[in-house]
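User: My collaborator and I are trying to settle a disagreement about how two of our proteins should look. Neither of us wants to argue from intuition anymore, so we agreed to look at predicted structures for both before our next call. Could you fold the first one, then the second, and keep them clearly separated?

Assistant: That sounds like a sensible way to settle it. I'll keep them separate. The first protein:
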Amino acid sequence: MIQCRQNFSLQALRLLAALALGLSAHTGFAQAPSSYPTRQLTMVVPNATGGTNDIVGRIIATELAEEFKQSVVLVNRPGAGGNIGTAQTKTAAPDGYTLLMTVNSVQAINPALYKNAGFDPVKDFIPITIIGSVPNVLVVHPSFAAKTLTEFLALIKANPGKYQYASAGNGTLNHLLGVMMDQMGGYKMEHIPYKGVAPAMADVLGGQVPIAFASLPSALSNIRQGQLRALGVSTAKRSPSLPDVPAMIEQIPGFSGELWVGLFAIAGTPPEVVNKVYQATATVMQKPAVQKKLTDLGLELAFDTPAQFKVRLDQDIVKWGAIVKASGATVD
C-alpha cells in the first residue's frame, strides 16, 4: 500500500512538472526573464503605414533589433482609429515579445470617444517610454485677416461662431484642440469635420475653410512655402522648428496639447523585461543618428522613464476625457 502511494506521488509530481513545462513554453517563459530576448520580437502599430507612429516605430524597431541581436518585426493592424490593433494586441502573451507603438489619440482619447474601444489603456498595457511628441500648429489661409495670434484671438472673441475650422473628424486631436481653446479662453468657432487629414488640409489650403490645427510635420513645408500662416503652436513652449511662432499657452493659460508616440508592453509583463526594453530604447535614443531621424520628422524627443510615462498617460486620460465629454463627440 505504501509502495502504491509512493508511485502515485511520483506520477503526480511528474504530471505537474510536465504541465508546468508546457505552460511555460505556451506563455513564452521557457527561459527566465533574465535571458530575454532569445527570439524574434513583434512591434504592433495599430494604424496604417505612413503615419507618424508607423515611421517612428520602424526607426526604433530597426535600432532595437541591433541592440537586442534579435529581429524586431513591425506589424500594422489599422482600423477603428487604432482600436482594432490595440484590442488584438492586449491578448498577446505578457512576455515582452509583443510590444505596442502607439499614440495618445488612441490610448488617451479613444477610450472616452468610443462607446466600446475594446481595451483599457491602464489595465491592459504597461507604459515603457515616450519616444517623442509632435506639436500641432494653428494655421490659417494667407488671405485670413489675422496676421498674429493676438489678432486671431481678438477676432474670434469678437465674432463667436462666425469662423470655421477644419479637422480630420469628430474626436480627433485637431478637433479637440478647438474645443480646448473654447473651454479655456471662451473662443467659439464652428467645427467642420472631414473624413481624414488630407481632405481637411486640401480645403484649408484652398481657403474654403480658413483655419485648422495641423500636426507640425504635415504643415511645415506649406508654412515655409507661404501657403499657410502659422499663428501658434499647441505645446507648452515654442517649437525649435518655428521659433518665432508663439506657444498658445502664452495667451491662453493652461493650453497645451500634443501628439505623443510611446512604447507599451502587455499587462503582466515581468518588470525585469519592461526595464530591459526601456534601457535598450533609452540607449538607441542617445544615438545622434537616431535623434536626427526623429527630429527631422518634427518630433520633439522625450526620455520618460516608465514611471514618468505612466504619470503622463494618467494625466492625458483625465484631460482628454473631459474635453471629449465637453465636445459631445461619440463614435459607436
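The second protein, kept apart from the first:
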Amino acid sequence: MSKAVILMGSRADLGWAQKIANRLKQFGIDFVFRIASAHKVPLQCYDIIKEQEKSNPVFITIAGLSNALSGFSDAQTHCPVIACPPLGDSFGGGDVYSSLRMPSGVAPMVILNPENAALATAKILAVSNGKIREKVKEFQEAQRQKLIADNEPLVGVP
C-alpha cells in the first residue's frame, strides 16, 4: 500500500501537517494524521506506530523544540521516517539540532520544507508504485518547464 502517516507531536503542528498533506494529494498519496508525543505519551505513540506500520507507510514526523518524536518513531519501525520539524525562531533556530543529531542506529531523514517532505515521500513510494512514479516525473517536468518559461523573457536582456 502507498500511504503516508503524518505523526504530529501536538495539535499545534496541524497547519504544518496540512502543507505536507496538500502536496501528498497532488501525488495521489493516501495519508492519515495522528497526534502523539514521544515525551508525554510514549506508549500511545508506540501503539500508533505499530498499528500504522502494518501497511508499510512512510512516516512523516512533525515536532519542534526537543524533537524526540522522529528518533523514537524511527527506532520503533522498519518503515522510512522523514522528520519535518516546523521552523521555529526560538533558540535562533537551534532547536533543529534535536532533529539532526541522532544516536547510532536511528536514522530519520530530515527535510525542513513541508512540500519537499511530501516529494521525498512520493519518491520513496514511487520505487514500487508506477502511478506515483509517473506523477513524480510529471511534477519534475513541470518544474523544469516553469524555469524555462521564466527564463524566456530574459533572453537578450543585458
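Some points you might bring to the call about the second protein. The domain at 3-154 is CATH 3.40.50.1970 (Rossmann fold). The mean pLDDT is 95.
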